[in-house]
Amino acid sequence: MTLFGIKNCDTVKKARKWIEANDLNIPFHDFRVDGLTQDQLTSWVASLGWEPLFNKRSTSYRNLSDEDKSDIDETKAIELMLANPTLIKRPVLVSDDMVMVGFKEADYKAWFKI
Predict the structure, then answer these.
(1) Residue 28: φ, ψ to 5°
(2) Element (H, E) at 105
(3) Quick one: which H or E segment has residue 45?
(4) Most C-beta atoms within 10 A of its C-beta, which of 14, 70, 89, 98?
């Protein structure tokens, strides 16, 4: 299991703090620093679909060209998220067979059965 995100993201900070407070040993992968592969992102999209992962409320999205913002489909979304990792909603919690996006304490409690 791994928690993916960007270390200075407020929501990622909340998730990491919750994980630490609950004595869970989950490695953190900063995809801005450590990178993200197309295979990783494609597997998340296969699990969730691209829409839950693609952050249209981000500054990165607002800074995209009108051409980039138009006609977004799965392939284009993956390309844009790989080129601009801050377009990915965070954090992304990944286990062998599950992917969760965002942080809500109730969802994390259910995931970890706490």
Answers:
(1) -110, 135
(2) helix 105-112
(3) helix 38-48
(4) 89
pLDDT in tens, 8-44: 999 999 999 999 999 999 999 999 899 999 999 999 9
* 71-99 confidence digits (pLDDT tens): 999 999 999 999 999 999 999 999 988 99
The residue from 9, 12, 15, 93 that is catalytic is 9
On the CB side of 82, how many CA atoms lie within 13 Å of its CA?
Answer: 14
d(Cα 74, Cα 9) in Å, to the nearest integer?
A: 25
Structure tokens at 51: 């829409």
**Would you state the structure tokens that stand for residue 7, as one six-digit string?**
């270390």
Instruction: Mark whether 9 is an active-site residue.
Output: yes
Q: What residue has token string 């693609």?
A: 54
Q: Please name the amino acid found at residue 24.
A: L
By C-alpha distance, which of 71, 78, 70, 90 is closest to 46?
A: 78
Q: What are 30's two structure tokens?
A: 């900063």
> What average pLDDT does the segment 97-102 reach?
93
